[in-house]
Amino acid sequence: MLGVVIPQEARAEIARRSRGTPRIANRLLRRVRDYALVHGGSDSAASLDDVQAALELYDVDPIGLDRLDRSVLDALVHKFNGGPVGLSTLAVAVGEEAETVESVVEPYLVRIGFLGRTPRGRIATPAAYAHLGVRPVHEGLGLHDL
């Protein structure tokens, strides 16, 4: 539909970073097409290297986290010591509306096991710390302990 030729391994890379959401896959595909047109000349072909470079340029990491996702995780881990922290406070810390954090960011972070929702607020899981390459503040504590 977009007129871009992409090899199977490059399509798989886009799919991996799309969170299993067709709308996001289409958005990433458009970004890859634009990147390939600007950096590759007049043909509309994109290699795996083009896909990886485009998604790096657009700040989408290998598991599909974007700038806002990482901002939420970073704030939770570094500003609030892993939580618990309330939604409104977390939203203010990243400069977004609470509704955006709750409806756009949280579902994916919860689904991949990086964020927990407790009665006291949002918490970073050990997987979030591992992804960020940070040692947990509450080492040895599980979600049930917080």
Can you describe this structure?
It is elongated and about 50 Å long. The relative contact order is 0.12. The model is unreliable at 140-146 (pLDDT under 50). The chain has a two-stranded antiparallel ribbon with strand order 1-2. The chain has 146 residues and is mostly helical. The chain folds into 2 domains: 8-57, no CATH class; 67-145, Winged helix-like DNA-binding domain superfamily/Winged helix DNA-binding domain (Arc Repressor Mutant, subunit A), CATH 1.10.10.10. The protein contains 7 helices and 2 strands. The termini are far apart.
Sequence-ordered SSE layout with sheet pairings:
Elements: H1 8-16, H2 22-40, H3 48-57, H4 67-79, H5 87-94, H6 98-111, E1 115-118, E2 121-124, H7 126-132
Helix pairs in contact: 1-3, 2-3, 4-5, 5-6
Spatial extent as radius of gyration: 18 Å
Outline type: elongated
Mean pLDDT value: 87
Structure class:
mainly alpha
Q: Looking at this structure, what is the CATH superfamily of the largest domain?
A: Winged helix-like DNA-binding domain superfamily/Winged helix DNA-binding domain
| Neighbour order of strands in the largest sheet | 1-2
Question: How far is the N terminus from the C terminus?
Answer: 49 Å
What's the gist of this structure?
By secondary structure, this protein is mainly alpha-helical. It has helices at residues 8-16, 22-40, 48-57, 67-79, 87-94, 98-111, 126-132, and strands spanning 115-118, 121-124. It is elongated, with a radius of gyration of 18 Å.
What descriptive keywords fit this protein?
disordered C terminus; two-stranded antiparallel ribbon; 2 domains; 146 residues; Arc Repressor Mutant, subunit A; 2 strands; single chain; elongated
